[in-house]
Amino acid sequence: MSTSPRRDRIAFVASQSAEAQAAQAQLVSIYGNHDAAEADVVVALGGDGLMLQTLHQQMRSGTPIYGMHRGTVGFLMNEYSTHDLPRRLQAARETVIHPLLMRATDIYGEVHIHHAINEVSLFRQSHQAARLRIIIDERERMSELVADGILVATPAGSTAYNLSAQGPILPINAQLLALTPISAFRPRRWRGALLPDNAFVVIEVLEVDKRPVAAVADHDEARDVRRVEVISDKTIALRMLFDPGHSLEERILSEQFGT
């Protein structure tokens, strides 16, 4: 008979907002606080920004993260309550996601390596549109995209910037990545592509001196890039916890119907 994983040793982290700091103080007074390295679960108090920050900090620890909403945007968070938290943690459902690995080479030959949980984005740095070449699995798929930029989004990040750029919402368990242009000028009607999550995506920047481009993996930026490689990093499994009936799968599905 399998036993439920232990989740009573809790590490609390909070954003800098007064609301989140007050919540952390209250919860610590009730349940105590463990160091994240020794905890069974990390409880993040804030919004989606704090959740992404916490996921990055715990990327290789294997410790599950349970978010409670004490911030502005809370798509990745559970409802806040101080009541019977150990029971909620024990009953929570686990969702496993894999981050993207970005390897960006700039015009000086320096290589920038970062992980992204939501998306890897390329943006024009000047008033001129970027000119980009798209290669998928070592095969050229588009010789020239003229646009403000382009992004590669995970299912977990498909409802974030990807959705604002008119990209598709992906079910969390879909083995897909969204490749979405940002304000495409040519080809004007191109709306992007759905790629298998094991795709090796390469974006080359054309006219790098005249049309500089920056690459961003969540919040880590590399400027003046000439080549960006993106792949899903299956060696890292991020564990997120959600209350029953409020899973990330359900939230993403509901988002597609505007509910």
Task: Report on the architecture of this protein.
The protein is α+β, with helices and mostly antiparallel strands and 259 residues long. Helix content is 17%, strand content 40%. It is built from five helices and 16 strands. Strands 5, 6, 7, 8, 9, 10, 11, 12, 13, 14 and 15 form an eleven-stranded antiparallel beta sheet that branches. It has a five-stranded mixed beta sheet with strand order 1-2-3-16-4, with helices on both faces. Strand 10 and strand 11 form a beta hairpin. It starts with 9 loop residues before the first strand and ends with a helix. The mean pLDDT is 93.
Tell me the quaternary state: single chain
Rounded to the nearest angstrom, the radius of gyration is 20 Å
Query: How would you sum up the global shape?
Result: elongated
Helix content: 10-25%
The share of residues in extended strands comes to 35-45%
Give the SSE string.
Answer: EHEHEHEEEEEEHEEEEEEEH
Mean pLDDT: 93
Largest sheet: 11 strands, antiparallel
Number of strands: 16
How many angstroms separate the termini? 39 Å
What are the segments in which pLDDT stays under 50 over at least 5 consecutive residues?
Answer: none
Structural class: alpha+beta
User: How many helical elements?
Assistant: 5
